[in-house]
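[User]
Um, tokens okay?
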Amino acid sequence: MDTCPLPSAERDALLALWAVPGIGSVGLGGMRRWAAGRWADLLDTPARDWVDGLPASDLVRARLRAAGSLRAVADEVRERAARGRMEVLHKGDPAYPDRLAEVRDAPPVLFMRGSVPRPRRRLALVGTRHPEQGFLRHARAFAAAVAGGGAGVVSGAAAGVDRACHLGALDMGGETWAFLGSALDVVDAAQARLVPAILDGGGAVFSELPPGVRASKQTFPRRNRLISGASDAVLVLRAGEKSGAMHTVAAARVQGRPILACPGETWAEAARGCNLLVARGLAQLCIGPRDALRAVGLDGTPPPPTEVEPGQMPGMSNAAARIYALLGREARPVEELEEGSGLDPGGAVSALCELELLGLVLQTSGRRYQRV
């Protein structure tokens, strides 16, 4: 693990190389050995003069030639990061997560928004984007109890269980970190509401991707190793057998992180992944927040579960709060909700979708909605 701040020339060179598509953390390690302290010379020398000797693919070499110089690339990345209010972190910097820096393929560069306070034990809480109706309330209460017991909550800011866990930590005034599958300046609409809540709550959002890189099917599995790597243990709250959360489990096994899973009903497809992890001895059984806290070395008693008034939930839009205030246990047609909220049809449907993702409403037959 790197523990000392890097010389400025090497920082800029590594930042530039990291921004070139096709260079991963392992490949960059080979380039560092090849450069052997020559970063100050390479930084301003045109890439065409030295790139042929670089241990990289022909495509990477071509991209570097086209870029001109490492200095030009580094300056551009730093400028874009500054416009996006991002901090650029290298291993050895105080804000670079200590546990993540221990991982073999940890990114040499991270982009961050927010703040990293004093060290603490951290638990990764992950799960499916599409749990059964009502489960998100449980996930949120579970995360609140974990945060109340003194652990930081780490997740991926995705819809479903991830989002509920971030919000649960915020409910308790706890610390939460999110690792995104996109650059921090191109988040999707749901994350655009969640990220400000995390930052306002004193948490942080991270990405290994330089500014402008959008999420893809390739970036999410890679992102999951950062979630487990930055944590002291990983807990799968709810996941099917093929859930993306299993990528986090696979990374945790390689990294030597303890893995826990909450059991579910044997007939529930959304719980099959958790049940198989326990049955195959790949995860410890987690019955409640106390088990989770013990897994990260905390013996504190979690606070009793609390219900948060949904109208005051961090990250909930005003439109969703207006719709939720109109709902009760008896289903109401969408037309009534549109009229009562003063929203146009598109706005009402968008708000109802948001409430469904939060696990707060249930759609019944005939486009009717009720509180869960």
